[in-house]
Design brief:
Elements: H1 3-7, H2 10-16, E1 21-23, E2 26-30, H3 39-47, H4 50-53, E3 62-65, E4 68-72, H5 73-102
Antiparallel strand pairs: 1-2, 2-4, 3-4
């Protein structure tokens, strides 16, 4: 793992927060600043939702910034909500399977 990847580990960002860029129109997070563990997951999630990536639509959460492509704060928060829902659903499945095994 490279030094840049280590600096982007989720554990490194939790205490300090993510490096959002604040502008007059909103807050953005450059995709290259997304925590390393979530980078490919975010990319796959975005690919499966063209309404979030089509720049001709008002629902698009991607913007071109001075340092590359960024995701809006709202887009990032939607991704995190989906991530938490997915984890909860998986835990529910695991708990159900555990209860069935115990019977």
């Amino acid at each position: 793992m490279s030094l840049q990847q280590k600096m982007r580990l989720l554990s490194a960002w939790l205490p300090a927060g993510l490096p959002y860029v604040e502008t007059e129109v909103g807050s953005y997070l450059y995709l290259h600043d997304v925590p390393y563990e979530l980078e490919s997951i975010l990319a796959r999630w975005l690919l499966l939702q063209p309404e979030l990536t089509d720049r001709d639509l008002s629902t698009c959460v991607l913007v071109e910034g001075g340092k590359g492509i960024a995701i809006t704060r709202e887009g990032w928060e939607s991704f995190l909500c989906w991530l938490v829902e997915t984890l909860r659903a998986k835990l529910d499945d695991m708990e159900q399977a555990h209860m069935e095994q115990a019977q």
